[in-house]
Protein backbone atom coordinates (compact mmCIF):
# COMPACT_ATOMS: atom_id res chain seq x y z
CA UNK A 1 0.00 0.00 0.00
CA UNK A 2 1.35 3.45 -0.91
CA UNK A 3 1.50 6.13 1.75
CA UNK A 4 -1.37 8.07 0.18
CA UNK A 5 -3.80 5.15 -0.19
CA UNK A 6 -6.21 4.94 2.78
CA UNK A 7 -3.41 5.18 5.30
CA UNK A 8 -3.89 6.80 8.65
CA UNK A 9 -2.48 10.34 9.06
CA UNK A 10 0.30 8.95 11.24
CA UNK A 11 1.26 6.34 8.64
CA UNK A 12 1.47 9.03 5.95
CA UNK A 13 4.08 11.05 7.84
CA UNK A 14 6.00 8.28 9.62
CA UNK A 15 9.69 8.46 8.73
CA UNK A 16 9.49 11.98 7.30
CA UNK A 17 10.67 13.81 10.42
CA UNK A 18 14.11 15.19 11.21
CA UNK A 19 15.52 11.70 11.61
CA UNK A 20 14.12 10.59 8.24
CA UNK A 21 15.09 13.25 5.72
CA UNK A 22 16.04 16.76 6.80
CA UNK A 23 18.80 16.00 9.30
CA UNK A 24 21.61 15.74 6.77
CA UNK A 25 20.70 19.06 5.14
CA UNK A 26 20.51 20.76 8.53
CA UNK A 27 23.96 19.43 9.48
CA UNK A 28 25.47 20.57 6.16
CA UNK A 29 24.15 24.09 6.74
CA UNK A 30 25.67 24.16 10.22
CA UNK A 31 29.03 22.84 9.04
CA UNK A 32 29.19 25.38 6.22
CA UNK A 33 28.28 28.12 8.72
CA UNK A 34 31.14 27.10 11.00
CA UNK A 35 33.53 26.94 8.03
CA UNK A 36 32.45 30.42 6.91
CA UNK A 37 32.97 31.89 10.38
CA UNK A 38 36.45 30.38 10.68
CA UNK A 39 37.50 31.30 7.14
CA UNK A 40 36.11 34.83 7.51
CA UNK A 41 38.10 35.31 10.72
CA UNK A 42 41.18 34.00 8.90
CA UNK A 43 40.58 36.49 6.07
CA UNK A 44 40.11 39.47 8.39
CA UNK A 45 43.15 38.55 10.47
CA UNK A 46 45.27 37.97 7.36
CA UNK A 47 44.30 41.27 5.78
CA UNK A 48 45.04 43.14 9.00
CA UNK A 49 48.52 41.59 9.05
CA UNK A 50 49.41 42.90 5.59
CA UNK A 51 51.51 46.08 5.53
CA UNK A 52 49.26 47.78 2.93
CA UNK A 53 46.15 46.74 1.04
CA UNK A 54 47.19 47.72 -2.46
CA UNK A 55 46.80 45.52 -5.51
CA UNK A 56 50.44 44.41 -5.67
CA UNK A 57 50.51 43.35 -2.02
CA UNK A 58 47.25 41.44 -2.32
CA UNK A 59 48.40 39.73 -5.53
CA UNK A 60 51.66 38.70 -3.88
CA UNK A 61 49.76 37.47 -0.80
CA UNK A 62 47.30 35.44 -2.92
CA UNK A 63 50.25 33.99 -4.85
CA UNK A 64 51.03 31.92 -1.78
CA UNK A 65 49.27 28.58 -1.30
CA UNK A 66 48.76 29.55 2.35
CA UNK A 67 46.45 32.33 1.17
CA UNK A 68 45.02 31.00 -2.10
CA UNK A 69 43.79 27.65 -0.74
CA UNK A 70 41.82 29.06 2.22
CA UNK A 71 40.47 31.79 -0.07
CA UNK A 72 39.24 29.12 -2.50
CA UNK A 73 37.64 27.27 0.41
CA UNK A 74 35.96 30.51 1.50
CA UNK A 75 34.53 30.99 -2.00
CA UNK A 76 33.28 27.40 -2.20
CA UNK A 77 31.78 27.42 1.30
CA UNK A 78 30.15 30.80 0.70
CA UNK A 79 28.45 29.77 -2.52
CA UNK A 80 27.43 26.39 -1.09
CA UNK A 81 25.95 27.97 2.02
CA UNK A 82 24.14 30.62 0.00
CA UNK A 83 22.75 28.01 -2.37
CA UNK A 84 21.52 25.85 0.51
CA UNK A 85 19.82 28.82 2.14
CA UNK A 86 18.09 29.92 -1.06
CA UNK A 87 16.91 26.38 -1.72
CA UNK A 88 15.31 26.29 1.73
CA UNK A 89 13.49 29.55 0.96
CA UNK A 90 12.23 28.08 -2.33
CA UNK A 91 11.13 24.88 -0.56
CA UNK A 92 9.25 26.91 2.05
CA UNK A 93 7.47 29.33 -0.27
CA UNK A 94 7.09 27.67 -3.69
CA UNK A 95 4.48 24.95 -3.52
CA UNK A 96 4.27 23.91 -7.19
CA UNK A 97 6.67 20.99 -7.71
CA UNK A 98 7.62 21.97 -11.28
CA UNK A 99 8.39 25.56 -10.28
CA UNK A 100 10.39 24.38 -7.29
CA UNK A 101 12.51 22.03 -9.40
CA UNK A 102 13.04 24.74 -12.00
CA UNK A 103 14.09 27.30 -9.39
CA UNK A 104 16.45 24.79 -7.77
CA UNK A 105 18.06 24.21 -11.16
CA UNK A 106 18.42 27.96 -11.85
CA UNK A 107 19.85 28.59 -8.38
CA UNK A 108 22.30 25.71 -8.72
CA UNK A 109 23.51 26.89 -12.14
CA UNK A 110 23.87 30.48 -10.85
CA UNK A 111 25.88 29.27 -7.85
CA UNK A 112 28.13 27.13 -10.05
CA UNK A 113 28.66 30.04 -12.45
CA UNK A 114 29.42 32.49 -9.64
CA UNK A 115 31.78 30.14 -7.83
CA UNK A 116 33.52 29.27 -11.10
CA UNK A 117 34.05 32.94 -11.95
CA UNK A 118 35.36 33.69 -8.46
CA UNK A 119 37.72 30.69 -8.50
CA UNK A 120 38.94 31.61 -11.98
CA UNK A 121 39.67 35.16 -10.82
CA UNK A 122 41.48 33.78 -7.78
CA UNK A 123 43.54 31.42 -9.95
CA UNK A 124 44.39 34.27 -12.31
CA UNK A 125 45.66 36.33 -9.40
CA UNK A 126 47.43 33.43 -7.68
CA UNK A 127 49.21 32.20 -10.81
CA UNK A 128 49.77 35.59 -12.40
CA UNK A 129 48.91 36.56 -15.95
CA UNK A 130 49.63 33.04 -17.21
CA UNK A 131 46.25 31.75 -15.98
From TrEMBL:
UniProt-listed Pfam families: Sdh_cyt
GO MF terms held by the record: heme binding; metal ion binding
Alphabetical list of InterPro entries matching this protein: SQR/QFR_C/D, Succ_DH_anchor, SuccDH_FuR_B_TM-su
Lyase in keyword set: no
Cofactor(s) needed for function: heme
SUPFAM superfamilies in the cross-refs: Fumarate reductase respiratory complex transmembrane subunits
Ranges annotated as spanning the membrane: 31-53, 65-83, 103-127
Subcellular location as annotated: Membrane
Highest taxon in the source lineage: Bacteria
GO biological process: tricarboxylic acid cycle
Record keyword Membrane present: yes
Membrane topology: Multi-pass membrane protein
Family annotation (NCBIfam families): succ_dehyd_anc
Function field: Membrane-anchoring subunit of succinate dehydrogenase (SDH).
Subunit comment: Part of an enzyme complex containing four subunits: a flavoprotein, an iron-sulfur protein, plus two membrane-anchoring proteins, SdhC and SdhD.
Name used for this protein in its record: Succinate dehydrogenase hydrophobic membrane anchor subunit
Source organism of the structure: Sphingomonas xanthus
Amino acid sequence: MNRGESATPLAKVRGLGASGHGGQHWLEERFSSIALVLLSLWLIFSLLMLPVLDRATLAEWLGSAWAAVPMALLVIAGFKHGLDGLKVVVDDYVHDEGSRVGLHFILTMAAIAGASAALFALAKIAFGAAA
